[in-house]
Amino acid sequence: MGPAHIGILGLGTVGCGTVNVLTRNADEISRRAGRQISIAAACARNLTRRRDCDTSELNLTTDAVSVVENPDIDVIVELIGGESPAKELVMAAIRNRKHVVTANKALIAIHGNEIFDCAQQHGVVVAFEAAVAGGISIIKAIREGLAGNRIESLAGIINGTGNYILSSMRDHGDSFDQALRQAQNLGYAEEDPTFDIEGIDAAHKLTILAAIAFGIPLQFDKVYTEGIRNISTEDIRFAEELGYRIKHLGIAKRTTTGVELRVHPTLIPERRLIANVEGVMNAVLVNGDAVGPTLHYGAGAGAEPTASSVVADIVDVVRALTTDPNNRVPHLAFQANAISDIPVVSPGDFETAYFLSMEALDRPGVLADVTRIFGELDISIEAILQREPVEKNTAQVIILTQETKEQRMMQALVQLEELPSIMDAVKRIRVEHLSYSAT
Amino acid sequence: MGPAHIGILGLGTVGCGTVNVLTRNADEISRRAGRQISIAAACARNLTRRRDCDTSELNLTTDAVSVVENPDIDVIVELIGGESPAKELVMAAIRNRKHVVTANKALIAIHGNEIFDCAQQHGVVVAFEAAVAGGISIIKAIREGLAGNRIESLAGIINGTGNYILSSMRDHGDSFDQALRQAQNLGYAEEDPTFDIEGIDAAHKLTILAAIAFGIPLQFDKVYTEGIRNISTEDIRFAEELGYRIKHLGIAKRTTTGVELRVHPTLIPERRLIANVEGVMNAVLVNGDAVGPTLHYGAGAGAEPTASSVVADIVDVVRALTTDPNNRVPHLAFQANAISDIPVVSPGDFETAYFLSMEALDRPGVLADVTRIFGELDISIEAILQREPVEKNTAQVIILTQETKEQRMMQALVQLEELPSIMDAVKRIRVEHLSYSAT
Asked: Nearest 5°: phi and psi at B394?
């Protein structure tokens, strides 16, 4: 077969990584794909900027529309990122009956339902492995590798920046701000780090993972999202005393009433493999009814790890060029007419265990007051730690509870904060035990 | 589309697991596949035996040939295991232009080249995800998910029995024989455990992984294989003192002269995620030039985890029924005409670090003699431990070396064993640091 022709939109970090991987591994890739992958055109905003890839052999243009309209191109590779103009270009490509490969999580999480609908009408594939967890082929693993399972839950470290910050707070005792600055200096965090540290990036990815795991629509607006800005080195240290690590997890879980979709800092037992995923690495734990727990680990970002997934998608799409569309793997794992509308559980109904941290007056009876509140609300306590600070006549009280409904915990917090012996607000961090045993 | 019809050969552990998963998750599976999967016939040797699945709705037979010749059947699912009659039945199915799904590692490792050749001639797919690492979709991950990479190396815990034995020796201080007996009592080890503990099962799986990673033929006879029978609780304890765990690894690695294919007990740093894979769980570390290190973890055996991979393959194959054969994923990841004949490195040329354990007379000058031998052979020493036993006037000397060629280490061992102060043979276990950083 002759070469397949692709057009690349965007020559930033991932775009250049993709050019480099396609060039360096051209032989390995064509030995796998059965044909060469040829870059017919590449589009960038500024053609004079210095780039991390050799562009001398590329047919460069600043006109993205000319690429998506180029009749010689079979596959458009969208690596611009963000919602606009990426969305308009992807939709135009689809209408021109070109297949699309994208690394754009915001685009898929927010506009995926519309994009896949249009792709299906036009008989083309939109592939997005690189949109979640960089080089980990987690989309393929869930969508195809676990196709025999009813997926019960998944939990992932799916934002490398946040994991880098939490790891270096634990390893070096850095404050959140110090760790963030260091992440920025190393290029792991953006100048405006909001998307990463507030969990928005993770929520985009969780939206996608939940859709393909459960066969539900993409519904980014229903993901409960909490960032890591409030995590202190003390929280990390107390968690460690209790045998836990704090990780920023994206969690999707079936319950009796629907599916929980949530991103928040989470204590997890230090013995779990995923608790030991450090730095910018990502990992996703998927629990299927037949397979039991599986863990998928790798680099969650970076030029070449992300390019690894982009190129894998290109090879898949090139193979699908001549395939009857009805026999392709559905975009969201389940056939478009078989997506089900399982309700998304509201945060008040989340059931988790809790780590609570509060400053209390150091005097007799305080623990009695505190534990009475939990007893009356039927919340079981797993452990209590009390630590005196060096200066003030208060103590730091740490409580680990068993599982309870979030709304009940909120009641407890209101009552706790009304106690005259409890200073300030009570900090709460959710706890997940992630203890699935394989069948 | 109407249902796809499959015929199952073998209703043992995995066969029943497959029936159970296909039945229980029929709805989820057909929502993914776009059509129902219907079991048209199932074959077992003994129809009166009690089984772990409901066979009342199955069309049962003892005549396997009638199944592979049944014109209504699209896909044969071979779950008999072993070489014969599995091979004859699979070949007959292929000649009848039926696709095949198999969990049979021995069959693929030993006869795969012939089987895939025949399958290609007849335009059918032979899928074998379940043959390696049970429920982990490692074949798909390497063959498709990492298709953009030049795979540099892989290292896997791919035999659950061996890992269970080594884990319980470490956790409970059990001897090898005690741990083996316990594994047998729990059903994790066969009555004749040779295949598992001598590394033959792992070598079958490594043969398959190496072929799809590097684009080389299946060559089981070239895998260097060493079992775990000689590992003692002392070795495990000394390794731990040095910061290592002992795991039975299958390793495939590119070197400047070819590819190393080896299965042997291996010390790995305890901080690596794969060092913390315990019990019967499996994990495979794959290192690609673009993606860096990735880890794939899950249940390596058992009825339903293995069935999870069998069913995933069934769904894949059903999707491929109408696909142009030239556009399918090649059996061994690389196109059949692009398999390359990279030489397999002979054991003398393996390069690894070593853990050596020897009993030495407890008198001055012994360490000087020992270290002189290493010095003369240009083998660098990383660490030395000396431990006195309670009774005899000897000491246990443990040496950790840096990387060296195996033939040079063999010379050192000969010279060491000639020293009058060294009692008995020197035990050597290879060490791998598995320290790949993502690009």
From this structure: -120, 170
Mutate: best of A6, A8, A120, A144, partner B, most B CBs <10 A: A144
Out of A25, A149, A327, the one facing B149 most closely (by C-beta) is A25
The SS3 assignment for B200 reads: helix
Domain residue extents for chain A: 4-135+303-338, 138-299, 347-431
CATH architecture of A138-299: 2-Layer Sandwich (3.30)
Tell me the shortest Cα–Cα distance from B69 to chain A, in angstroms: 25
Candidates B30, B137, B282, B334: best to mutate against A (most CBs of A within 10 A) is: B137
The verdict on a CB contact (< 8 Å) between A312 and B150 is no
Residues of A in contact with B148 (CB under 8 A): 21-22, 25, 29, 307-312, 314-315
Q: Which CATH superfamily is domain A4-135+303-338 in?
A: NAD(P)-binding Rossmann-like Domain (3.40.50.720)
Q: Is-catalytic flag, A98? A: no
* Cα(A163)–Cα(A184) distance, integer angstroms: 13
Whether residue B269 contacts residue B355, with contact meaning beta carbons closer than 8 Å, is answered with no
Task: Report whether B210 contacts B183 (CB < 8 A).
Answer: no
Instruction: Look at residue B68 in the predicted model and tell me its pLDDT.
Output: 98
Catalytic site residue from A205, A253, A405, A427: A205
Which residue is it, tokens 């870059």?
A39
* Type of residue at B291: V
Distance from CA of B36 to the nearest CA of A (A): 12
The CATH number of B348-431 is: 3.30.70.260
Select from B31, B294, B299 the Cβ nearest to the Cβ of A136. Answer: B294
Min Cα–Cα distance to chain A from B323, Å: 6
Q: Looking at chain A, which residue has its C-alpha nearest residue B331?
A: A32
How open is the CA angle B269-B273-B275, to the nearest 5 degrees?
Answer: 45
The single-letter DSSP state of residue B6 is E
The proportion of chain B whose per-residue pLDDT surpasses 90, expressed as a percent, equals: 92
Among B327, B337, B340, which would you mutate to test the A interface (most chain A Cβ atoms within 10 Å of its Cβ)? B327
What pTM was estimated for this model as a whole?
A: 0.96
- Number of cross-chain residue pairs from A and B with Cβ atoms under 8 Å apart: 258
pLDDT per position as a tens digit, B197-239: 999 999 999 999 999 999 999 999 999 999 999 999 999 999 9
Residue A242 DSSP label: T
- Let me know: does A297 contact A50? Beta carbons within 8 Å: no
Residue B438 pLDDT: 45
Residue A138: closest CA among B144, B165, B254: B144
For B128, which residue in chain A has the nearest alpha carbon?
A: A145
Contact A277 B273 (CB under 8 A): yes
User: How far away is chain A from the Cα of B302, in angstroms, using its nearest Cα?
Assistant: 7
Positions of chain A with pLDDT under 70: 390, 437-439
- Which residue in B has a C-alpha nearest to residue A276's C-alpha? B273
Q: Name residues of chain B where pLDDT drops below 50.
A: 438-439
**Both tokens of residue B210?**
């190496």
CATH topology of domain B4-135+304-338: Rossmann fold (3.40.50)
pLDDT at A439: 37
Would you say the ipTM is above 0.90? yes
Chain A residue closest in CA terms to B35: A335
Give CA–CA dist B426/B398, Å, rounded. Answer: 10
CATH of domain A347-431: 3.30.70.260
- For the range A62-70, what are the long-range contacts, defined as Cβ-Cβ under 8 Å and sequence gap of 24 or more? A64/A9, A64/A89, A65/A89, A65/A92, A66/A41, A67/A7, A67/A8, A67/A9, A67/A41, A67/A42, A67/A43, A68/A7, A68/A9, A68/A92, A68/A93, A68/A96, A68/A98, A69/A96, A70/A7, A70/A40, A70/A41
Q: Which residues of B are catalytic?
A: 205
What is the Rg, in whole angstroms, of the alpha carbon atoms belonging to chain A? 24
Nearest one of B30, B148, B323, B151 to A137, comparing CA atoms: B148
